[in-house]
Design goal:
Blueprint (H helix, E strand, L loop, with lengths): L1 H28 L3 H8 L5 H11 L3 H13 L1 H11 L3 H13 L14 H10 L3 H9 L4 H13 L7 H13 L6 H14 L3 H12 L4 H13 L3 H12 L4 H13 L7 H12 L4 H13 L7 H12 L4 H13 L7 H12 L4 H13 L7 H21 L1
Length: 394
């Protein structure tokens, strides 16, 4: 019995002694926090800084030492921010520091932090960090950029596109080049939210001059509203060159009617076709119309019907009415009054007066439907109301 007890004691001693020996050897070989701090100072040794971060996640005294280093050493702070992009522990450390010591955000001044990083940081810090960012803004372009992100997303502040654009603009002016790509869309959205046309146009111009296609098209619409057709066409053309379908359609309209440019039906069709191929239902209708009338292209009823049908798939009222006419006249399709009535009905229900009058005629003459004077009168009255509403809007 003694031999068994003695044997078990030896095994137990071995099980305890071996791990302790390994741990002791590791502790002897592992650098101290002071040694790691010396290596990590100024961000000179990222590996040493990562080791400090790892220890800080386990030991309070290590966390305190790391916190002191980061708060007083901008180089180490820069290195930590760089490591945070690909190391989860570094990111958690940075977020925790910003949460408990918001003033540490100023040490990010020399790093071009990206949008997702800034948003993640803002979502984790306390609300008073926003006030500190505003204080640091004069000397820290990053603070301006982060304030832009805050106002764009409503982080600890009320969402405000105008403020977002203003802060992105300040960041860019201070040399933070990344802010330029966020300034233009923010300025565009600020224009969309503006209550007055002139204010909206000012914001659209800011974004348009940065090459932002949506703002260029919107600015064109503003010029069209004040009857400056040439300026409208110019800005439409800038956005159209970038492949924006709305601008291609608007510029096509200008060429079709000679507004701000010399009238050119072929150029109008070319632009409508570009927009139509991107799924713009109005452009699809006008391509169909061009083929039906032979304006800018050779007349081709079958091709007209094809484009009308694509537009109809998007419930476009003008195309529904036009397709009704094709069935009524047998242009590009087999003549069918019942099909004509079907498409007139779809269009009329969307308050297209032309379709309402055509439907009234069908009921009056018994074309594709049973004669019905009351229904004919109903649709004529609808057409009159629709026309009056359109006059009131204009």
């Amino acid at each position: 019995m003694r031999r068994h007890i003695r044997a078990w004691a030896q095994v137990l001693l071995l099980l305890i002694a071996v791990p302790l020996g390994i741990a002791s050897a590791w502790l002897v070989q592992a650098p101290t926090m002071e040694e790691l701090e010396d290596k990590a100072a100024g961000g000179a040794d990222p590996d040493a800084l990562l080791k400090m971060v790892h220890r800080a996640s386990m030991y309070p005294e290590a966390a305190e030492a790391l916190g002191q280093l980061l708060v007083h050493d901008a180089g180490a702070m820069r290195a930590l921010a760089g490591l945070a992009i690909s190391h989860e522990e570094a990111m958690e450390c940075l977020l925790a520091l910003a949460h408990y010591q918001p003033e540490s955000l100023v040490y990010l001044r020399d790093i071009e932090i990206d949008y997702s990083f800034a948003l993640g940081l803002l979502e984790r810090v306390q609300a008073d960090a926003i006030e500190l960012l505003a204080v640091y803004a004069e000397e820290c372009p990053n603070a301006c950029f982060m304030l832009g992100v805050a106002y764009e997303n409503g982080c600890h502040v009320s969402q405000n596109w105008e403020q977002a654009a203003a802060w992105y603009g300040r960041a860019y002016d201070a040399g933070y080049t990344l802010a330029a790509s966020y300034y233009a869309p923010a300025a565009y959205h600020a224009g969309l939210e503006a209550g007055e046309l002139s204010t909206a146009a000012d914001w659209f111009l800011e974004a348009a001059e940065c090459g932002y296609a949506a703002a260029q098209c919107a600015l064109g619409v503003c010029y069209a509203e004040v009857n400056d057709a040439a300026s409208a066409a110019y800005w439409y053309s800038q956005a159209a060159e970038q492949g924006m379908s709305d601008a291609q359609y608007n510029l096509g309209w200008c060429y079709l009617h000679g507004e701000g440019v010399a009238q050119d039906a072929a150029e109008a069709v070319r632009l409508f076709l570009q927009a139509a191929e991107q799924g713009d239902d109005l452009a699809q209708y006008y391509v169909g119309r061009a083929y039906e009338l032979g304006e800018g292209v050779s007349q081709d009823y079958a091709e007209a019907v094809r484009w009308y049908q694509w537009s109809v798939e998007h419930q476009n009222a003008a195309a529904q009415c036009a397709l009704g006419h094709c069935y009524a006249q047998g242009h590009g399709v087999e003549q069918s009054w019942s099909q004509a009535v079907h498409y007139y009905q779809l269009s009329a229900e969307q308050n297209r007066s032309e379709a309402q009058l055509a439907l009234a005629h069908c009921y009056e003459q018994g074309l594709g439907v049973a004669r019905d004077a009351a229904m004919a009168q109903y649709w004529r009255e609808c057409a009159a109301t629709t026309s009056q509403q359109q006059l009131n809007k204009s």
